[in-house]
Amino acid sequence: MFQRSPSLVEQVKSYLKRQILQGNFDNGRIPAEVELARNLNVSRNTVRDALSRLEIEGVIIRRQGAGTFINKAGLMVKSQLSEIVPYQALIEEYGCTPAIELISVEELPSPATAEKLHRHADEPFLLVKKRFLADNQPVIFSSTYLPTRIIRRAYTPDDLRRPVFEFIPEFCEQDFSYFLTELVPLIPPDWLVSALKLPPQKSALVSFEEIGYNQNNEPALMAISYFRNDLLRLRLIRQNSS
Amino acid sequence: MFQRSPSLVEQVKSYLKRQILQGNFDNGRIPAEVELARNLNVSRNTVRDALSRLEIEGVIIRRQGAGTFINKAGLMVKSQLSEIVPYQALIEEYGCTPAIELISVEELPSPATAEKLHRHADEPFLLVKKRFLADNQPVIFSSTYLPTRIIRRAYTPDDLRRPVFEFIPEFCEQDFSYFLTELVPLIPPDWLVSALKLPPQKSALVSFEEIGYNQNNEPALMAISYFRNDLLRLRLIRQNSS
DNA sequence: TAGTGGTCTAGACCACATA
DNA sequence: ATGTGGTCTAGACCACTAA
Prior knowledge:
- 2 copies of one chain form a homodimer.
- The first copy, chain A, is of the alpha+beta class.
- Helix content of chain A is 28%, strand content 33%.
- Chain A is built from 8 helices and 10 strands.
- The first copy, chain A, has helices spanning 8-21, 33-40, 44-57, 87-93, 111-116, 157-160, 164-171, 190-195, and strands spanning 29-30, 60-63, 67-70, 98-109, 124-134, 137-147, 176-186, 205-214, 219-227, 234-239.
- Chains A and B meet through strand 7, strand 8 and strand 10 of A and strand 7, strand 8 and strand 10 of B.
- Strand 10 (234-239) of chain A pairs antiparallel with strand 7 of chain B.
- The first copy, chain A, binds a DNA duplex through residues 4, 7-9, 32-34, 42-46, 48-49, 51, 62-68.
C-alpha cells in the first residue's frame, strides 16, 4: 500500500487528510486506530503518529474512550504558523491563484542587518524584494537580506523568485534549519500602501521579522514579510499541550 | 526515578528542560538517547517523545548522526502560540512580576457574539474585562464573552480573575478543548490607549480574536485580547515539518 | 567504522466513554 | 462489559556524521 519514502507516518497522514477532505468518512467519525492500522497494513503507532499530527493541525479531535472525529471548525485554519510554508502554497490553501513578482534585487551594506546576523558591519547583502498576488491582488510583500558572501553558485532572477529557504541549500552550500520569527504589527508607510495597493483609509498590518538559521545554528538570513490582513486572515489552533 | 502521573514523557521533558536551563550539560551537547534512556530508566521511545517536544519548542536541535544540542537562540522564544498559556504565566516567562485587574463585569446581549457562538441573538452574555500587568505596567487587555446560560454554579469576582479556560470546566459543566484564534492587527482606539497607557504617538497593536470550543466541539465563548507589543514581543519558531 | 538520531513494529496495560 | 484512545516498552533496522 505504502512505500518507504517519505515516511510511512507522513503518507498515512496525507492519505487520511485526503479522505477527510473528500468526505469519505461518514458522520464525521474516523475509524478506530486498530482498524486503520489493520486496513493500511502498518502498526498502530504509525497510525497514532499520523493522527497526532492531524490533531495538532486542528483537522481532527480525539476523545479517549469515545473515538476520533473530524473537526470542521479546524479546517478553517489554513496556515500553521509553526510550520514553514512557501507563500505560494499558502495562497493556494486559501483557494486563490498565486503569482510571484520579483520587484527588485540590489546589493548593499546594511549595518543593522549585519549585527543581527553576526557579520561585519560593512559586509554587503543581497536585498531581494518580492510581491505575492492572490487572484491578481497583492497580499504579501517580502524583503530578504542575504549575505552576499555565503552565495557560492551563480543564480538567475528565476532562482530568486523561489522561497529563500529553498535557495540556500542549493546555492549557499548549507542547509536551512528554522526561522526565529517575531510578530510585529505596524501602520503601513506610504511605500507599502502603494506596493500592496491598500485602501486609502489607514489600517494596521501584521509583519513577520524572521531570522533564518542553518544546520549549524548560525544565523544565515533576515527577512521581513508584510501581510494584507483583510485578504489573508492568519488563523491558528491553540490547545492544551500537557 | 519517575512517577506514574503526569506522563513519563512530560516528566522527562521537564527534567531535561530544567537541566538545560541550569546549564548542567557541557558544550551545549545533550547525552545520546540510549544513554538518557538507561540513566532515567525509561524506554528510548519515551526519551524521544520528550526530545521531540523540546525540539518543537525550539529548545534543542537534533542532527541525525551527530547528536542533540541546546539551541540558545530558541530559548528566546517565550510563548508557543500553538499552546494555551495563562497570561499570568506568560508574563512570568518574560521575567516580570504579573498582576491581574478585574476591570468590569457586565451582563448584556450581543448579537454579533451570539452569531459567532451559534446562539439566539437576544441571549445575554457575561462580558468580563481584565487587564494584566507586568512589573506594574499594563501589557494585555482582554474582553471575554461567556453565554450566561451555560454557567451552572455561583461564582465570585475572584473566580472571574482566573483564566476562562479554567473557569469553564469548573462552573459550566463542560470541558474546554481548544481555541480557534485569529490574529488581527489594529490601530488602538482611544479607550485602549488609556487602558494600556500607550505612548501618545500612535502605533499598531496585535490582538487575538478567539473562539473557545468545548469537548463536543461546540463554540462556548468568545474573547479578544490586546497585546502591548513594545513590551511583550511575540516570538515563535517555524520549522520544516515533513 | 563506530556512534548517533530516524523509523517502524508488536504487544502490553491503563483510563475513559458508552451502552 | 466492550471498545475506544493514552501510555510505555523492547527491539529491530536504517541513514547519517564524524573520526
